[in-house]
Amino acid sequence: MSQTVEVIINAAAGAGEGGGEQGRAVAEAFAACGTVARLSVARDGGEVTELARRALSNGARAVVAGGGDGTIGSVASALVGTGRPLGVLPLGTLNHFAKDLRIPLGLAEAARNVCEGREVLVDVGEVNGRVFINNSSLGLYPRIVRRREKLQEREGSGKWSAFLRASLAVLRRYPFLHVRLDADGRRVVRKTPFVFVGNNEYLMESLQMGGRERLDAGHLSLYVAHRTGRLGLLRLALSALVGRLGRAEDFDSLQAEEIWVETRRPRRLPVATDGEVTVMTTPLHFRVRPGALRVIVPKEVPGDG
């Protein structure tokens, strides 16, 4: 690593316009391992991507993303295919990407990993040209996220209380999607409450449920719920809680390199990618991009190439 790293953090994650206390903590964490952090603060996901592209055009050897999975995914989208490595400071709530790569969750340890770690190649997913590092979904989840964001903007509600209220409101209406899926030539037709596409395979029957053992297997994972009522959806949730989702009767899962999704209606629908929601026009084209992203991970992580 060079002695200066470009670090981009999201103001929405509490950094403030000038970086604030979080920015100072980031600078101190890198200074402790002899590296200067050149900090940029973005106001939203679009500006995160633009700042990452600007850093690359200015000759940055690596770009560090500080924030949740949405922020990390936005920086990653600028780095895909460039060969420049991504550093990760997991400053979000869930930090799935960092956990799956065994990147330390503490700020000081994560900064040291950027300074001293090794580089590996991992896959990314893509839907209609939009990159995702974790997963993408349509149906219930993006509808809940959009409603949650409206509640937060209108009422200033906390994230989790707004999420609960949004979930109850969406489940009360319980909308279905009529989808036609083509996964590497295998066709599936469903009336479903949700479709979930993961970058590589998610563990569904272990205490690590929701995580991934590897991010370089070169395929997407597709999970589709059958037509089911609210009780059926509750049964799926309970199956997930006890780590038996892969055995649920109302649930299909398969792996593919390329997936097409068509809907009878609507043609334009909200699609979530790494927790960020955008409106896309069907058909949706999902594909895996093997080894397209270079990431800095701990030296001691076994099994990565």
What's this, in brief?
The protein is of the alpha+beta class. It has helices at residues 20-31, 45-57, 69-79, 96-100, 107-116, 140-155, 159-173, 230-241, and strands at 4-10, 36-42, 63-67, 85-90, 118-127, 130-132, 135-139, 177-183, 186-192, 194-199, 220-225, 251-256, 258-263, 268-273, 276-281, 284-297.
- Tell me the number of strands: 16
Computed CA radius of gyration, to the nearest angstrom = 19 Å
The fraction of residues in strands falls at 35-45%
Multimerization status:
single chain
Give the H and E element order: EHEHEHEHHEEEHHEEEEHEEEEE
Mean pLDDT: 84
Sketch the major β-sheet.
Answer: 10 strands, mixed
Give the % helix.
25-40%
Distance between termini? 19 Å
**Form type:** globular
Structural class: alpha+beta
- Uncertain stretches: none
Describe this structure in words.
The chain is of the alpha+beta class. It is built from 8 helices and 16 strands. The chain has helices at 20-31, 45-57, 69-79, 96-100, 107-116, 140-155, 159-173, 230-241, and strands at residues 4-10, 36-42, 63-67, 85-90, 118-127, 130-132, 135-139, 177-183, 186-192, 194-199, 220-225, 251-256, 258-263, 268-273, 276-281, 284-297. The strands form 2 sheets. Strands 1, 2, 3, 4, 5, 6, 8, 9, 13 and 16 form a 10-stranded mixed sheet that branches. The protein has a 6-stranded antiparallel sheet with strand order 12-11-10-7-14-15, with helices on one face. α6 (140-155) packs across α7. The longest helix is centred in the middle third of the chain and has 16 residues, at 140-155. The mean pLDDT is 84.
